[in-house]
Amino acid sequence: MNQHVPVMDGDTLAKRNALVLAGAQALGGASPAIVISLGGIVGSQLVANQAFATVPVSLMQLGLATGVIPAAFLMRRLGRRRGYIVGALIGAVGASVAATGVAERLFWLFCLGTFLCGLYGSYVQSYRFAAADTASEGFRPRAISWVMIGGLAAGVIGPQSVYWTRDLTPAAPFAASFLAQGALALIAIGVVLALRAPPVKEAKSGGGRPLPEIMRQPKFIASVIAALVAYGLMSFVMTAAPLAMVGCGHSVGDAALGIQWHVLAMFAPSFFTGRLIARFGKETITAAGLLLTALAAIVGLSGLSVAHFWIALVLLGIGWNFGFIGATALVTDCYRPEERVKVQAANDFLVFGSVAIASFSSGGLLSAGGWTSVNWLVFPPVAVALALVAWQGLQRRVVA
């Protein structure tokens, strides 16, 4: 039986930080939503070979993957708050570069801008770990969920920014949307200034286990694979979805709204995901997320109407929420306090590196095999991740 671990009195600071980070997530999380909504569409207008249309979105994911380790060590040196300010400044610069690429119709410059936006994302993604740093074991899943709730606001702010700004620069459609993205990153600086996180430092040399030893733990392997499957497949399908919708005759507005519903579904369950984990266990909720991802693919294979796309994207979002938050909570069981920096960085590098690969392959597979092929490729990774999570759950029960 999974028992609820009581929240400790010391969680006052953890609750405060979680709320601050949720606000920062609402602003910083809007950045990828804007790139995902527009990256493939703008890319298709700037490049002749449509197989490369989703490269800007993929480069955002690559920027996120390559940025996690430098971001972790920068925050170890400067502290989380100063590190997050640096990240937001990178995001503002990246959005400005992307807007310039759109205005000048330079595909490579637009891609550079989205890559820089991905670097900003590597800081935003660590908000969930920052919330866990000061939390007790019992409050940790809820602290992570609280931060992810900020993404619910991001799911509205990002697509609505696109909707209200897309036509402000008629000579360069969507350029204003990326300028709005940069403005949101600058506003986020004012929010993270309120963060009161402890110093991100590891213990003196010899105070923690070597990283390879930690990474060889079966529970680390299972949690990382579950996270990369949950996030990688979400990125894989989501990147292709807007182009697939437009290709099926649906409007850009329908595609943007589909992404909005998807992002809302990604973060809305965070109101109760932490409590579900406390009630049913980390492995159970992670497995439920993987199953919902498979169900999204089944819906995607069932038809090409707007409703089919939107329902598939909503299920995909909920599946990501359960799978990724559950897997993140599992990762926090794998390290000691003095090991957190290197383990968190290694986890995110593996996860987001896989996400980048999935995103890069999405456009080519959509161009070559269509929306049907994209959905069929969801099932094998889900089966592998489910098997590992189920095995880890059985091992935990045997030990208990």
Write structural notes for this entry.
Keywords: Membrane, Transmembrane, Transmembrane helix. GO terms for molecular function: transmembrane transporter activity. The chain has one domain (11-199, 210-399): Growth Hormone, Chain: A (Up-down Bundle), CATH 1.20.1250.20. Helices cover 80% and strands 0% of the residues. The chain has 16 helices and no strands. It has helices at 11-28, 30-46, 55-78, 80-104, 107-124, 127-133, 140-165, 175-192, 211-215, 218-247, 252-267, 270-280, 282-302, 306-331, 340-376, 379-399. The longest helix is centred in the last third of the chain and has 37 residues, at 340-376. The radius of gyration is 20 Å and the shape is globular.
* Helix segment tally: 16
- For the termini, the CA-CA separation is 9 Å
Computed over alpha carbons, the radius of gyration is 20 Å
Structural class: mainly alpha
For the record, what CATH class applies? Mainly Alpha
Classify the helix fraction into a percent range.
over 70%
Question: Can you say what the CATH homologous superfamily is?
Answer: MFS general substrate transporter like domains
Query: What is the residue-mean pLDDT, rounded to a whole number?
Result: 85
Name of the CATH architecture: Up-down Bundle
Order of helices and strands: HHHHHHHHHHHHHHHH
> How many strands?
0
Major β-sheet, in short?
Answer: none
Quote the CATH topology: Growth Hormone, Chain: A
Number of domains: 1
Strand portion: under 5%
Overall geometric form: globular
The low-pLDDT segments are 1-9
Keywords: Membrane, Transmembrane, Transmembrane helix
Domain Major facilitator superfamily (MFS) profile: 219-400
GO molecular function: transmembrane transporter activity
Pfam families: MFS_1
